[in-house]
Structures are given as structure tokens and as C-alpha cells.
Amino acid sequence: MPDATLKDRVLLVTGASRGIGRAVALAAAREGAQVVAVARTKAALEELDDDLRAEGHALTLLPLDLKDGDAVDRLGPSLYHRFGRLDGLVHAAAEHGPLTPTWQLDPKALEATVALHAFSAQRLIRTLDPVLKAGEGGAAVFLKDADVPPGTPFMAAYAAAKAALEAVVQAYAAELATPRLRVRLHDPGPTGTRLWQARYPGRPIAEQATPDERAPAILDLLRGG
Fold first, then answer.
1. Which end of the chain is more exposed for a tag (fewer CB within 10 A), N or C?
2. pLDDT mean across residues, the chain
């Protein structure tokens, strides 16, 4: 049974400047969590901060490109120095990569897409594992996408990136020897985000669930669901 509140829990949310990541950061901060919001764009993070401060809440902003491995590696020690623990991680950062036939796919675009999803997930696991285990119990939630399985036409980069992410996270979950740290792969379902619009440019976004509607299920996983 999930705990009733996230109050005072230390949470790290990637992709926090837009979409599902932003919705999770907002909802968690409104519950009183100490949210560390990670995104590449500082201005977008500041907009998130302004919205929360107008409601009387606050968070910690961390502009960071998750493709910068050295910067990601410094996250764990930095968080431990400041908070002494990490109670939850939500890895929501995503990019679609090009929609193109595989024979026309630029290898650099493939590498960049896989780097954001899978390479960054592994580096986050490596740097945050000790901090997640430092508290009384935590959760690490990684977003998958059942809508784009391996072999999806014209989406080789994104499908490969998500498949690699799932493989990394499943291995991590199987390797853990402590029940105090829960690792979850979560498929939020089709959601009206920029990512979804890039995939289906001709479809009406209003027919999809909003990021705010997807956030509660992720918060439940952080609580212990």
C-alpha cells in the first residue's frame, strides 16, 4: 500500500522542464517533496520554479545535459553532500530522434538518442545507487514506451534507445540484493506531449491524456506502489 504522502522526501526528476517530467516535479513539490529538477534548458526550469513559487512551493533547479557523462557522474556525490540520501528517481528525459528509414538514419543521431535514454540511465544508476541506498527506502522509476516496440518502422533510433534502456533497468533490478530499493519500468501510455506530437504530427493532441493525468501513477510508484 503506497504511503500517503511524499512530504520531505528527496526526489530527482529528469526531463523536468516539460511533459511528464514537469508534471511529476510539480505534483511532488506540491506534496512537500524536496524535488531536484533536472533538465537541459535553464530557462524552462526557471519557468517551472516560478510556477511553484507562486503557489508557495520551491524546488532545486539543476540545468544538466544528460549526455554529458562526466556531469552525470558528479550527481551522486553532490546529492549526498547536500541531502545525505535520495528517496526517489524519475528518469523522464526523452527525445524522439529522427523519423526516417533505417538506411537513411545518421549514426550520430542514433548514438545521441540511445545516449539520452540508455547511456544516461546506466550512468544515473551508477552514480545514484549509493545515495538511493543511503536512506530508509527508495524507488527508481524509468519510463518505457510500449507504443514503440523494437522493429517499429521509421523509428529505429527511438525504439533502439527504449529497448536498451529497458535492458539496463531490468538487469539492475535483478541484481539488487535489497528490498529497500524498488526499481520500476513504467509505461505511462500515450500522452499529449511534444514527443508524441513529433511521432504523430497529424493526430489531434487533445485526444490523448495530459501529462498531469499521467503523473499520479508515477507518484504512487515513488510512494511504494
1. N
2. 91
